Request: fold
Amino acid sequence: MTADPDPPRWTVPPAEYDDVALALDGILDEVRVTVPAAVVSSLASSTAASGGGGRDDGATDSATDDAARRIKVADLTDQEGTPVARLTVTERSRTAEGGWKLTGTVTPLAAREDGVFAHLHLPPAVVRERFAGRKVAAVPLDAPLDKAALTALTAATRAYDVTVLLPLVGAGSSRIVSAHALVRATVVAAELLPGETLVVPVPLARREDPAEDTALRTRVAEAYGGCVEFPLTSSAAAGGDYPEPIAAIVAAEHPPPHRQGLVVFFTGLSGSGKSTLARRLRDVILERGDRTVTLLDGDVVRQMLSAGLGFSKADREANVTRIGFVAAEVARHGGLAICAPIAPYADTRARVRQMVAEAGGAFVLVHVATPLAECERRDRKGLYAKARAGLITGFTGISDPYEEPTDADLRLDTSVMSVEEAVGRIVDLLTARGWLRPDSSPAGVARR
Ligand SMILES: Nc1ncnc2c1ncn2[C@@H]1O[C@H](COP(=O)(O)OS(=O)(=O)O)[C@@H](OP(=O)(O)O)[C@H]1O
Ligand SMILES: Nc1ncnc2c1ncn2[C@@H]1O[C@H](COP(=O)(O)OP(=O)(O)O)[C@@H](O)[C@H]1O
Reply:
């Protein structure tokens, strides 16, 4: 069989990238990867352009199916686009969403240089060779070891010459601490265990199915030279009784709420009062002095981050997603971001909520539910009048949708409450949930 002269290439998502790494290390026999729709349609279009016929963009549905079926070899790249592995396809299948998955074997194209504690990485073959002739206990870990787990592990590995600790750092692998902290905590644990130890991070991505996770962990342990009877998923939970140096690593990842990343996200019609409340909230928090604040106001964002975007559904989604991305990064570092776009679509707001959660931040949705009639009466910028006159099309609330949130943490109607009252309600909520400290407000500042 001859390989395609110029195989298609694409960037695989993190979990698939982790599987590729495990397959290159010989832990998995095969990988199963998703073919991006754009890759299939561009293959189909290029066939059509060379005489295959098709729809406007040159690709019919059967042409895209044919194109996916014709992929025999593909180059899989890392996030920067560097090809890391060549896939030789053994099987193809359709996904429920109508896309394609390819299964196959991989060969290396470039050494994987990135990843969590990459310098500690050792392939199983190297570890087995290093400890040849010795009795090796290999223990996958997805949580920091607490005192009880360390005692159990010490007992379980007593009869072994070497203990290889395998912190699982693949996509979605640890729910208690970050992958980096898990490796740090494991390095500390290794020093607390008797006998010879080695720490090797393994990028095993978490599956949906716990049985599959367990089977894969056993496979990882066996690849590294042996498996001991030890609960593969550590029973340790956040708040477990950890030895001091591990406790410090876990605690650093679980700051008290007033130092946790937080996004306060205002949504509401134009003129509802989002910017006014967002600015006042920022000032109140700065006056209290307990947190720094990044304000991502709708108008300012549109000049900076979203210059050039208009008000079509796609442009609004892009604008709000960009705001969410920046806010999530602020939250990732323990900051407080206040956002104030109209954000008319529930899906986009949910996506922002998700991005913030993935960055480890908390998310508070404030619906500024001032009735349209009052927003229109205010009409500070004269835009409602223009929208009514048909001079502006697709104006939110007049000729474009606003999907009322059903998941708001607070609903504030500024036609019946003052700015100070509304901001006071938000401060009360943030304080009740611990994101602001109750004792840091100089009397009378929050409510004048
Ligand atoms: N067609 C249309 N619809 C709604 N709003 C319009 C439109 N055209 C311009 N403007 C002005 O743009 C401001 C809204 O921008 P946002 O970035 O907050 O909107 S969105 O979240 O992307 O939907 C909004 O400002 P605010 O009044 O501060 O909300 C309007 O002044
Ligand atoms: N209780 C209130 N809360 C917020 N804004 C109010 C209130 N009462 C009157 N306003 C006025 O309504 C207007 C709201 O405009 P703005 O804050 O720019 O809204 P948005 O950002 O939602 O478009 C401002 O002129 C503000 O002074």
Q: What stands out?
A: The first strand starts at residue 9 and ends at 11. Residues 52-59, 232-238, 443-448 have pLDDT under 50 and may be disordered. The first helix runs from residue 14 to 24.
